[in-house]
Amino acid sequence: MLKDTQWTRGSSLERVRSRWVPGLVAGAFFMENLDGTVITTAIPDMARSFGTVPADLSVGISAYLLTLAVFIPISGWMADRFGVRRVFASAVAVFTAASVLCGLSHSLGQFTSARVLQGVGGAMMVPVGRLAVLRTAEKSALVHAVAMLVWPGLVAPILGPLVGGLITTYWGWRWIFFLNVPLGVAALGLTLVLMRGEPDAPRRFDLLGFVLAGLGCSGLMYAMELVGRSSVERALVSFFVGATAMGAAIVHFLRSPHPLVDLSTLRFHTFAVSQRGGSFSAIAVYSAPFLLPLLFQVGLGMSPVASGSLLLFLFGGNLTMKPATTWILRRLGFRRVLLVNGLLLMGGFIACSFLRLGTPPMVIALVLFACGLCRSMQFTAFNTIAFADVPPPEMSAASTLFSALGKMTAGVGVALGAMALHAIQSVRGTRGDPLSVTDFRFVFLLMALVAGIALTDVWHLPHDAGAEVSGHRPGSD
Asked: How far is 53 from 435, CA to CA, in rounded Å?
């Protein structure tokens, strides 16, 4: 009888964990995703606090995204070595402490260092939290549990710019980070109560691959930042170091029996296209949340709240497209969708280049909504076709590479946008002057060109690429 009672209690506890752990992880994801977008409307105010120009704040954003890209590949090893519960709890604690340091920063250097530390916590939270959900959820509840992990990435970007604008206007930008403290403390307490996960036998850690990849990513990203600041000689040195280290990392990954990042999945054509062409598309798309708030506030003189409100239409377009995505892919197939939608995505950037003082807010809202529709379709199509031909045994390796490159391209998009703004001002002889609408016009046209590069890769996809996933039958339309 006692044994039956103990079993019942244990089974009941497992059901509680299965129900609440996905919500806990989704909440942590929401906090991490929100921090990636909430500061975009606060950039001008933060730049004034640090005594620098708004475009220079890109280093704080790109450093965070770069750290995610560097540390995501080791998250699986960390979970095996120390246990899911311990790693996730530590990640929440690091992320929360780094948020406090961000809010206390008084210089761009201090802020960037705090963002790097925050990125370390975020890199551990995302994949380890997902692993905790997969291990905890019952089979019957797995689909619902995984679906809960999707909403933070959709809702946080919508709320982020407006929340950031409101906080900056009425409380000051520092409270954007201080508000993470109660959320982080609550998440840490729930993690210690609800989550479990003992260490497993870890595979050998690829220290050389980690060092080479980290040095390569950092060197290349820093080179882009230096070009934007007209430090050409230092940029060339940084680029040489970064390119050399990245080349050595690639050679090492191809030869190592237990690489940190498995590049063999690139032999699948659809996956390779998603990483090549998809990266160019992502670079352009990720530049928009950085460039648009600057255009609205610095170029068009809007308030942070007005700027954040307009960005709701961009991310609203993302959500509106979601229900129609499956039908469109089934009707047209991946290749046609990526080509046509890619052209529309280019058109969206060109339309943004024509926004100026006097453009009616409703017109701006419609342009952003249309851009959001195309942005969502392109992301979903590339993200889905990436795994269309990858067999289950290699899905984990492909997912790690996909996640790491995704964060890297996000950082490159922000850094490229800032670099282009600096470069345009240097060419026009307005270096040091406030950014003008003309400066943004050239940069948006550049991003349209970057988005167009992806089409050259998509063009070589077969007409039936990913048909098993999309359900599209070539010749039936």
From this structure: 9
Separation between Cα atoms, residue 289 and residue 234, nearest integer Å: 28
Smallest CA-to-CA distance from 115 within 93, 130, 97 is with 97
Domain co-membership, 199 together with 296:
no
Q: CA-CA distances (angstroms) from residue 142 to 137, 145, 240?
A: 6, 5, 46
Q: Are residues 72 and 106 in the same domain?
A: yes
What is the DSSP secondary structure assignment for residue 106, as one 8-state letter?
Answer: -
State the total domains in the chain.
3
181 and 80 in a common domain: yes
3-state secondary structure string across 350-375 = HHHCCCCCCCCHHHHHHHHHHHHHHH
251-298 residue pLDDT tens: 998 888 888 888 888 888 888 888 888 889 989 988 888 888 888 888
CA distance readout (Å), 334 to 143, 325, 383, 468? 24, 11, 11, 11
Q: Tokens for 57?
A: 């704040």
Answer for the pair 60, 112: CB distance below 8 angstroms, yes or no.
yes
Q: Which domain holds residue 230?
A: 206-259
